[in-house]
Amino acid sequence: MVQLEGRPPEGGGMEEFMALAELFGYSDETLAKVQSAVSEEKGVPVPQLTRYYNPQPSRVKMLEEYACELFGSNYALGVNSGTSALNSAYAACGIGPGDEVIVPAYTFFATVAAVVTSKAIPVIAEVDETLCMDPQDVAAKITSRTKAIVCVHMSGNVCDMDSLTALAKEHGLALIEDNAQACGGKYKGRFTGAIGTMGCFSLSSYKITGAGEAGLVLTDDEWLHTRALNQHDTAACWRPDRFAVERRPGELFCGQNYRMSELEGAVNLVQLKKTEAQAQRFNRNMRTVADHVGEFKNIRPRPSNDKEGDVGCMLVFFGRNPQHSGQIIQDLGEAGVSAGGRGSKTARDWHIYTYWEHIMEQKTATEEGCPFTCPYYQGDPPRYSPDMCPNTTDLMERALFVNIDQWWNEGDCRRVAGAINGVFANLDTCCDR
């Protein structure tokens, strides 16, 4: 055997490991102890941080297997973001030129942006007082060109899945769940994200569950899973023989690279294992606070499609008008209750359709304006305007969100409810001050 002198020293990878440890903010003293302890390990191989070449069990694969077990789905795919999850699901469902996709007017912009990058036309539907997609407006906007409905479980609130599932079935449409803001939510006992044709998750530091940037795609359909795999990894490393011809037309196409790294897989596997207990704590505290808030003439609570299934990270109320809601939010803050909302503020918000200038003005990356000018699209030229979803605009200006802490005890919940009651009682008849 040829003896090579260029072999890395034993314990290689120490610098990378310590760089990760530093991210957690430990003191220099603790980091020195960690480095000393790790240095005693000899011959530790540098890990492969891509799932396909990791000699240890892939953390991404373990995450996918656990997601299937937790959510009751046949297939799960780990990707590098919630947007990548949407893009992979849209491609799997065959969404493309000439198609229309119905999306809610209240969702983070990624939901609709991925429709445009799929070369389809987004059709924006109203939300109702649940702040989720309004099934009646969805029904009114279905055409012969509609390919999919994308329902979004917003702010921890679950959609009316019975009505939306019935609509999708009646018209032969894909029903794609954007579950970025409701991981752990349930509708009539079933986990959101595992009810529709496909479910998309964002496992992110900004979401209820997740750390860093990662995402998941769930489905019960093997073929859709296969196509999502190809979209998320156009090099097709996942196939039994990555260099073989396709086993079925539509298996291979020019996709992207949305693969999840082993780093994200490891961290988010830990996060996902907290999902169910975390959602139960949020929901319990949300319902406890809600049960102790009284009834008021001009301040109404958000109705729920499944009060016991909502994650419950926020409790939502509606004031009489934007000024009224703005004053309530201010007074709640002064009373020590964490709350937010728009009221009469004019700040831009990528969650509300009126600020999606990319869509309102049909902006595209290239000059020809695809998909808005696509010859495959046989409908009237798409038109968007800030007043196209007046119900959504009204609701968002009047909505006030009370943040719920999963770690509150019952006494904390009662004290928060008491503070809310005090503010509401003082402002119940107030419109402007």
Task: Provide structural commentary.
The protein is an alpha/beta fold and 433 residues long. It has 3 domains: 8-46, no CATH class; 59-274, 3-Layer(aba) Sandwich (Aspartate Aminotransferase, domain 2); 275-349 and 391-427, Alpha-Beta Complex (Aspartate Aminotransferase, domain 1). It is 36% helix and 13% strand. The protein has 14 helices and 13 strands. The strands form 3 sheets. The chain has a 7-stranded mixed beta sheet with strand order 1-9-8-5-4-2-3, with helices on both faces. It has a 4-stranded antiparallel beta sheet with strand order 10-11-13-12. Strands 6-7 form a two-stranded antiparallel sheet. Strand 2 (100-104), helix 5 and strand 3 (121-125) form a beta-alpha-beta unit. The longest helix has 18 residues, at 410-427. The model has no long low-confidence stretch (mean pLDDT 93).
